Amino acid sequence: MGSKFNWGWRIGLLYGGFVAMIVFMVMRASSEKVELVTKDYYEEELKYQDHINRARMADSLHLRPEWTVGGDRLSVRIPSMGHAGEVSGTIKFYCPSDAARDFTYPFTARADSDLVIDHSRMAHTLYRVNVEWSQDSHQLLAESVLKID
What we know:
Mean pLDDT: 83
Structural class: alpha+beta
Oligomer: single chain
CATH topology of the largest domain: Immunoglobulin-like
Strand content: 25-35%
CATH class of the largest domain: Mainly Beta
């Protein structure tokens, strides 16, 4: 009398195991949280050339915001273009690990003065920061990475 567990059963078990593994991987992947950087990603992609032009303008004028993190305060100094005029703009904080931690900080201040932001509500993680401001009819943008400890 031969074994009831022949090569046909082995192929069937191998195929069944493979199908069970694929079903498990699909269910696990579909439960993973996937977020885009912004909700209107495609609209912003169309305006990206303007973004590049603003960043190039800031780089060509050697205007880069300076960040200082200390205690529960975060300060940023927006440089001036020769004279200390008024600047206005927004600072956008993007948290790559969790979109719920993203926020925008609008500001109006004098150039070469410190803007103080209370970062006690910010998570201790990495942020991608976009500073967009206008000064002397120039639209400027600077990007940086900031780690809050």
